[in-house]
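Anyone up for a design puzzle?
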């Protein structure tokens, strides 16, 4: 969607519709920033899931080791 808005902005510039081009370029930037934020959030969630699973495994191993020593 951001790329389509940017292409439309280029077309508007070619047609000397500068106000429209400015609005489209701004919309393109906002949409690109939003896509980047969503991507970062998804990556962060994946890291959190991995860390949580790793922590759970570590706790299980600690509990087994503690049980062996008793």
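Challenge accepted. My sequence:
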């Amino acid at each position: 969607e951001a790329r389509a808005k940017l292409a439309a902005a280029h077309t508007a510039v070619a047609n000397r519709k500068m106000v429209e081009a400015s609005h489209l370029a701004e919309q393109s930037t906002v949409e690109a920033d939003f896509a980047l934020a969503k991507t970062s959030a998804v990556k962060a969630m994946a890291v959190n899931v991995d860390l949580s699973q790793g922590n759970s495994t570590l706790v299980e191993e600690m509990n087994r080791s503690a049980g062996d020593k008793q």
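A detail worth pointing out: The CA atoms of residues 8 and 24 lie 7 Å apart.
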